[in-house]
Design a protein that fits this description.
2 domains; single chain; 267 residues; three-stranded antiparallel sheet; 10 helices; three-stranded mixed sheet; 42% helix; 8 strands; alpha+beta
Length: 267
């Protein structure tokens, strides 16, 4: 990844996660509450600058907690949404206010605990992740496995998933199949060429989601996911658009299974 974080992209963050065992888990536990992409971005900057990963907040956020950012400390850059209105005549039409758009930019507004001093703080525990709650929140139901091929570990159709009862890692396959649904890979009716990514990319995307979820939650199967992704990509780089979709889908799954499903205001 480039040392210029303002030029960082989701594909670079994903590649860092895929090729660095333990990175996702460390980022998830250090910066819980932020998107997975921002977690990895924050951790990478901490490693680069020799900072102890830990709770993170804005300058005013730390003041509200009774702590002060140390003099001379530089902020951690995270990706944040910025809303704006496009007032060009060709898009405004009859709407004088213009059409609203959202862009994502990198801003150095955050500081980790190690960059501050003052009152001690309590770090809230990370809520447990619940599979049934996640499926319900996402509107996905589980149906009995009815595939005749015993080598098939699971499948998705419509808004339903089925997991082979003999599957040694049902959680990983659950993430994979739910990802197929959230990523728009599962469709009904006629599918025309070009409407979906090719199969190798669909499988790499779904397994990328499984990798992020498994390692975040400390579940087994991560090494299988890494090998699976590399086999499907066959040396190709993950496209930027695919990386964005992978991070978004993994965030959806993780947030859906926690009691705290409201997105962080920084996202």
């Amino acid at each position: 990844m480039s040392s210029d974080t303002s030029r960082s992209r989701w594909a670079s963050l994903l590649a860092e996660a895929v090729h660095s065992p333990g990175l996702i888990s460390e980022a998830y536990h250090a910066f819980y509450g932020y998107s997975l992409g921002n977690q990895i971005l924050a951790l990478w900057q901490c490693h680069l600058r020799g900072l102890q990963p830990g709770p993170i907040a804005t300058y005013k956020g730390w003041q509200a907690k009774g702590r002060q950012v140390k003099k001379g400390e530089k902020g951690i850059e995270l990706c944040m949404p910025v809303s704006f209105k496009d007032k060009r005549p060709e898009v405004v039409g009859t709407d004088d206010e213009g059409k609203k758009h959202t862009a994502f930019v990198y801003k150095p507004f955050w500081f980790v605990l190690a960059q501050t001093e003052g009152d001690p703080i309590e770090t809230p525990p990370i809520p447990d992740w619940d599979r049934a709650a996640a499926l319900a929140a996402l509107g996905i139901t589980e149906i009995p496995f009815a595939h005749l091929d015993g080598n098939c570990l699971g499948y998705a159709k419509g808004m339903q998933i089925a997991i082979n009862p003999l599957n040694p890692m049902p959680h990983k396959t659950t993430f994979h199949e739910v990802a197929h649904i959230l990523l728009g890979h599962v469709v009904e009716g006629e599918i025309r060429e070009g409407e979906r990514p090719p199969k190798h990319l669909r499988e790499a995307e779904a397994e990328g989601v499984a990798l992020l979820c498994c390692e975040s939650l400390g579940l087994p199967g991560v090494e299988y996911s890494r090998g699976y992704i590399q086999d499907w990509l066959a040396g190709e780089e993950i496209p930027e658009k695919s990386a964005q979709k992978i991070f978004h889908a993994a965030d959806q799954i993780l947030k859906a299974g926690r009691h705290e499903t409201k997105a962080s205001p920084t996202e």
